[in-house]
Each structure stands twice: as structure tokens, then as C-alpha cells.
Amino acid sequence: MPNPTAAILIIGDEILSGRTRDANMYHLAGELTRVGIDLREVRVVPDDHDAIVAALNALRATHDHVFTSGGIGPTHDDITADAVAAAFGVGIDVRGDARGILEALFARKGIELTETQLRMARIPDGATLIVNDVSGAPGFSIGNVHVMAGVPGIFRAMVAVLLPTLRGGTPRVSRERRIEIGEGRIAPQLAAIAAEFPGVSVGSYPFSENGVHGTNVVVRGTDSLAVEAALSRLDEQFPLSAS
Amino acid sequence: MPNPTAAILIIGDEILSGRTRDANMYHLAGELTRVGIDLREVRVVPDDHDAIVAALNALRATHDHVFTSGGIGPTHDDITADAVAAAFGVGIDVRGDARGILEALFARKGIELTETQLRMARIPDGATLIVNDVSGAPGFSIGNVHVMAGVPGIFRAMVAVLLPTLRGGTPRVSRERRIEIGEGRIAPQLAAIAAEFPGVSVGSYPFSENGVHGTNVVVRGTDSLAVEAALSRLDEQFPLSAS
């Protein structure tokens, strides 16, 4: 069975304006690789209803899972939940279970839950909650779309709760060699290895450090024997690179 | 005249696998904001011909500019230039001016230019070169698509050369206040300010530091007077936050 595929949709003006450097894509990309879900695409869109709906509908039609980040807080610019409901054509309202979670949280803190904060209990019809212990306000899954917070600490907590509930695949094994030869001079050998092991991807990433122009070569695939065989071929070609 | 719009297309398996944390999107997003080009969308796709062509054609049809990062080196996994040519339906081959740049560079270094490295002189018909002094290998612009390297130092050098050649717009002014009150408790005031100043975007980003739950409020817009007026209203509501 092939690995499940996934896309990430990052929602937020602050990423597009360059104010904030994304951390969530990087975190989730690594976690998905670990559990054998193949991340195929990432999109970043602004806090704009139509843009979110269009991206959601494009991505959920073409990937097994879509993970979103951002826009589920209590303020006027938090419009993700409504956009998700619109994309699925379902209603949305404050829901009892989500409200209960917020009420319990605020009671523990000894502060009043306002009408505004109740916005965080607005859940599209048919969704299941993604609880988190960091902020208390839940994310949710509906169909193949998983809606999570943008604040990195909360996003990570939600990912940690969500991922074990999804069917994983065969984790992609990744092995790396640092070769102190410029990319252009080892390209023929890399192409030959890639051709010999078609199920293995051979990536090359040039670096320049202290006057040394070299190449980090990454050999990746779900068949660990094939990855090791390709790595052996690489080490035969460039013996000094074996670590 | 409205600001030009833009999209960024990041090409590379290493971003989607979580091996590499993107730096180029973050850098270019800030630079575009500075010159008044509105970044509306970012996509990340793998080193896959069809995925690159499809994303390029979708983005170049809907934005004034598309900036790409990655996949223009000499190795077998560098397929961006060919994908761009395919997206535009034009031919691609080693071109004299690009070849001349590489030959001069390699002559200066006293090393031989191989057939493989000549791949970096493959330029789609009708494109203009984006020179860079870091690696020597040029990027290129064709139509409204600007094709640049993935290595961050080279990408930055190309952005620095390219951006001054593009028509900019009205830079978006951004002012920020740190308010030590949770987002949920200031949401009504923020919504009122956003409603009073429709040309201004009011973003709120919760933080949690040393036990303080607060909110960074970002007021942005191209009309600096409106931004200052909105900021004044914010400072009236939350006097302690004025810096």
C-alpha cells in the first residue's frame, strides 16, 4: 500500500509580510517523514476567506490529508474555522463539547470566559476536536482536513495528539554524505546512481564553508535495503566521504 | 495604481522532507514588503516536473510576478529550467551568454568547465539572465517568472540584483505594539479598530513569556496616516502599551 499523501496550508498575513518566519511547516514536515506520510505540497495564503476556501478545496481533493496552521483564535482576523465550514458546505456554531473545554480551562484559571473567547468554540458541523493542553482551545478534524493553531507551541501540541490517530506508512529512510567536491564535478556519478536505483531519490545540496566548496548528498527512499545499496555505491565512488 | 502582486514557488524535496528549514521565503517576503510588492501566496512543491509546471502555470496566471527558488544547479535533480521552458512552451538549450559567464568564471578559478556544469547555462528561449557574483551561474526571468537558486546566499544575491529592476508599489507601513493582555480580552477593541479603519489590517499574535500571556498587535497598511490613526486609537485603548 503506498504511503498516504499530505499537504500543509499555512494561513496568515504575518508569514507573507515577512514579519514571522514559519516554524510549523518545518516541524510538521519532519514529523510526517517520521511516520511515513508523504508531504507533497505546502501553500501559504493570507487571512482572506476566499483564498483559504479555494486552497482548501484544491488541496483536500488531491491529497489524503490536509493540515492547516493559523487563524483559529478569538480575534476578528481568525477566520479559518468559518472558511473550513464554507469549503465543506456545512454549518458552524459554538458547540457544547468545545465550550465545555474552554469553560473548564477558564474556571481552573479563575477568569471569566467572554463572548469573544467563545469564538474559539465555533466548530464546523461534523468535525471532531483536536484537544491540546497548552492553550486549551481545541483544533478540529473534518473529513481529511486537520485544523490547528498557528502559535508554534500549540501547533506542536496538536500535532503530537493528532498524528498517532492517523494511519502512517513506511517511513522514508534518509542517509547523508558530506563530499568535499563541488556539485558540478560529481553530478555524473550521482546521476548514474539515481538511474541504477530508481526507487531511491538522490538529492545534492551544495555548501561552501571556509573556502571548501562541497556537496551534501542525501539518499532517500522507503526501501531501506535499496537506500543502503545506493549509499554503498556512493561510498565506492567517493571513499573519503564515508563517515 | 494598486501594488503589484506576487507569489513565491519553492522547489525542493529537502523542504518537504523536513531536512531543510526554508530561509528564502522568509527573506524574499520581507524584501517584497519593503518595495511595495504584495506577496499573496507561497507554494512548495517537490523536484517533480509535472508538479512544477502545474504550479508555475497556476501562479503566473494569477499574480504579477512569480519568484522561484531551487533546482537550477548542475545535477540530475535540477529540473527547474526545463520545467519553466515546458510551462511557457518554449525551447531550452545551452545559451552563448550564459555559457560565456560560466567560462569566464571557471577560467578565473583555473578549473575546467565540464559538460555537466554546462547544464547551468541551459536557458529557456526568450529569457533574460539574472547574474550573480556569488556562484556565477545565472538565474533568469521569462515573462513574469523569475527563476533563482535555492542556496540561500546565492538566492539573496539574485534577489538583490533583480528587485531594483521591477516596478515597486507603495510600501506597506507596519507598526507594532506589545500588549500584556491575552488576545481574547482585547479582541472586541481590535475588531472595532479594524472596522473603523477599513484600509488598515489589524493582526494579533498571542505570546506567552515568563508566565505573561500577551498579544503583539500589528497594524499594517499602505496609507501611513491611516496606520498612525489606527495606532493612536490602539494606544488610547491600551495606554500602557505605547512604546
Strand arrangement across the biggest beta sheet of chain A: 2-1-3-8-7-6
Major β-sheet profile of chain A? 6 strands, mixed
CATH superfamily of the largest domain in chain A: MoaB/Mog-like domain
Largest interface: A-B, 61 and 62 residues
Work out the count of structural domains of chain A.
Answer: 2
CATH architecture of the largest domain in chain A: 3-Layer(aba) Sandwich
Range of helix content of chain A: 25-40%
What percentage of amino acids of chain A are in beta strands? 25-35%
Mean pLDDT of chain A: 93
Please report the distance between the alpha carbons of the first and last residues of chain A: 34 Å
The coarse silhouette of chain A is elongated
Count the beta strands of chain A: 11
The radius of gyration of chain A is 22 Å
Assembly category: homodimer
Question: Any idea of the CATH class of the largest domain in chain A?
Answer: Alpha Beta
Secondary structure category of chain A: alpha/beta
Task: Provide the CATH topology of the largest domain in chain A.
Answer: Molybdenum Cofactor Biosythetic Enzyme, Chain A
> Helical segment tally of chain A?
9
What is the string of SSEs of chain A from the N terminus onward?
EHHEHEHEHHEEEEHEHEEH
Q: Which spans of chain A have pLDDT < 50 for at least 5 consecutive residues?
A: none
